[in-house]
Amino acid sequence: MPMIDTPSPNFDERSLPISLLVLHYTGMPDAASAINWLANPESKVSAHYVVTEDGQIIHMVDEEKRAWHAGRSHWRGIDDVNSASIGIEIVNPGHEWGYRPFPETQMSALVPLIHDIVQRRKITRGNIVGHSDIAPARKRDPGELFPWGQLARLRLALPRPTKNLMDPHWSDGGFMLALERFGYDIAEPQAAVVAFQRRFRPELIDGIIDGECRAILLALLLPKPMGDD
User: Fold this and answer.
1) Of residues 13, 53, 64, 89, which has the active-site annotation?
2) Which residues span the membrane (predicted)?
3) pTM of whole model > 0.90?
């Protein structure tokens, strides 16, 4: 697929095999600002790819190298997420600059890129995550407007469970243990609940553990999540 090479100096060597794909939004006023920042040695941040709103793919760090996109984060027992992941920044102003839906031209470029990466790297659907999933206390991206369902229908993300949902009536502590088992860092419990809702129940992000949240999480922990894919 066509790409524009804009190398970033912000990378180092991996210490883990690649097993994760992390999706971000840029959270800056425009694409040029974001790309310039990711390429600036003073920023100490980078990503392997950037996808613009008009569908351009910018290649910034070689996949074999450890880009600096995840920061302090955790997923399914992995603390050095940068070493284990490929990071894609999706151009969007984000919550601070006028968060808006991701246009179809952008998704039409993002989907084949994700498909190519996960096929080559054998990344499982459960390890295709958002920045807020791996850093719930710090991050909100790619946010509640990101079309995870579109990726799930293409088997490029876990689906939101929708069928035969059953509330297991866990205590709040039981829910948190299940959320940790699923993969989240639960050091800040409410932040972890909000991140879970942002990903799997985006129409109501209130940080409250309710029957719907419990039922969705239970279904996700089953061997085959029942969703809309």
Assistant:
1) 89
2) none
3) yes
